[in-house]
């Protein structure tokens, strides 16, 4: 019991370490009204009169601005990331899919339950991990990109940045996505270092999409809400266990003093 309590208290202390705002999320509103801590993200989601092209679905409640969505569609690079890192540039349909994914990254107000703290990055202090992506979304993305070219399977970690922009790693060579990733699930999960976790469309916990009609409600909201409620329930159980450990320590202290 004592060893369990020691480990539990240590975990809580590490989780509430200095600078980790995520450790303070304690209500449903905390999880549902937060934006990722990135250099161009809002602090909290707010409505936008309009957003540009593939970012349009997020206008009612968005972590990005119209200006950002215009820039990510127009600029040849984003955060100095070079989409055309192989001699064969990305096809328009494949680049369009990555722009849609980028809209999610910049604009989604529903990633709170999947945020984790990261260190040593200039563009963000947090990232999302294992957000559940519907298999159908992943398959459509894959079909539009499988014949395009890349030189690495992990775009978050493997590029050479010594020039200030993303360059293919030394010794690598360009292959089709089909050759590099083999299948849709491996592609969606690995390309951004497990930001996404592909799940069946019928998964009882639901899954995320990257596009919906403007007059429809954001279908990702309920998925995020259900996940947040589960995290809060787990946190409540942890609080009870920590309290029990506190009473154990008090009881031991009383015995020692006597």
TrEMBL record:
Keywords of the record: Disulfide bond, Membrane, Signal, Transmembrane, Transmembrane helix
Domain Folate receptor-like: 35-208
GO cellular component: external side of plasma membrane
Signal peptide: 1-19
The keyword S-adenosyl-L-methionine belongs to this UniProt entry's keyword annotation: no
Database matches in Pfam families: Folate_rec (PF03024)
Family statement: Belongs to the folate receptor family.
UniProt name for this protein: Folate receptor-like domain-containing protein
Origin organism lineage: Eukaryota, Metazoa, Spiralia, Lophotrochozoa, Mollusca
């Amino acid at each position: 019991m004592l060893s369990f309590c020691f480990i539990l208290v240590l975990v809580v202390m590490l989780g509430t370490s200095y600078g980790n705002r995520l450790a303070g999320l304690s209500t449903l509103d905390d999880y549902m009204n937060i934006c990722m801590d990135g250099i161009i993200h809002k602090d909290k989601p707010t409505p936008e009169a309009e957003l540009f092209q593939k970012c349009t679905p997020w206008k009612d409640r968005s972590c990005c601005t119209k200006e950002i969505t215009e820039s990510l569609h127009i600029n040849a690079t984003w955060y100095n990331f070079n989409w055309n890192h192989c001699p064969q540039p990305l096809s328009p349909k494949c680049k369009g899919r990555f722009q849609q994914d980028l809209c999610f990254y910049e604009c989604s107000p529903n990633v709170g339950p999947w945020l984790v703290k990261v260190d040593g990055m200039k563009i963000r202090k947090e990232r999302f991990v294992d957000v559940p992506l519907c298999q159908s979304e992943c398959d459509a993305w894959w079909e539009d990109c499988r014949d395009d070219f890349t030189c690495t399977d992990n775009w978050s970690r493997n590029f050479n940045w010594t020039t200030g922009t993303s360059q293919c790693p030394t010794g690598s060579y360009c292959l089709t996505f089909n050759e590099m990733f083999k299948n849709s699930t491996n592609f969606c999960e690995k390309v951004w270092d497990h930001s996404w976790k592909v799940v069946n469309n019928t998964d009882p916990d639901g899954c995320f999409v990257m596009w919906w009609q403007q007059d429809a409600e954001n279908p990702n909201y309920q998925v995020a809400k259900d996940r947040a409620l589960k995290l809060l329930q787990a946190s409540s159980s942890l609080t009870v266990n920590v309290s029990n450990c506190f009473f154990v320590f008090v009881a031991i202290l009383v015995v020692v003093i006597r």
